[in-house]
Amino acid sequence: MTSDRDPSADDYDYDYDYDAVAHALDIGPDSTAAERTIDITTRGARSGIPRRIEVWFHRVDGRWYLTGMPQPRNWYANLRAHPRFVVHLKHGVTADLPATAAPVDEPTRRRVITAVLDLQDRPDVAARVSERQDLDDWLARSPLIEIVFDDEQLQTVSSRSPGNPSASVRVFAKPLQIVFKRFFERVLERHPVSWSADPH
Questions:
Q1: 97-107, pLDDT tens digit by residue?
Q2: I need a surface site. Which of 56, 65, 97, 194 has the fewest CB within 10 A?
């Protein structure tokens, strides 16, 4: 599937519902298949044409990752050539989140893939695969990247918990910045400032 949205664009609108986005990103071992399902838009490794596909994403130790079966993946080849991409949330909230694909070291690789394969113990996940997946095979051949969101606020708001009162402050911090920015833009539109050299 193709998309006309260039993942390298830098004009994305961050004016989305942070609480809803944080909730959608706050996945864990008990999350459903629907909650793990997102779209990503990458740029073709050779063509540079935006490509949009549906994938699962995972969250391990407060960070987000993309991985898959141990076989060649076009999305992985695309991200190795063009690390900039877009995460499209579509469960509970619709939002386009620009991000960068970052490589992972071997200890992280083992930790993440082990956590992903542990999902096989869930009946709903086991029903989706024909046979139990082998850890060594995944460690050797599976694609894996970390999702690093452009919006640094997302690195903190999604680690919120109901018992953490400071989380609400972080959730609303960005929207308040947007409100004040728009307020001052309107003020300047009505009362333009003329900049001139100081006569003194």
A1: 999 999 999 99
A2: 194
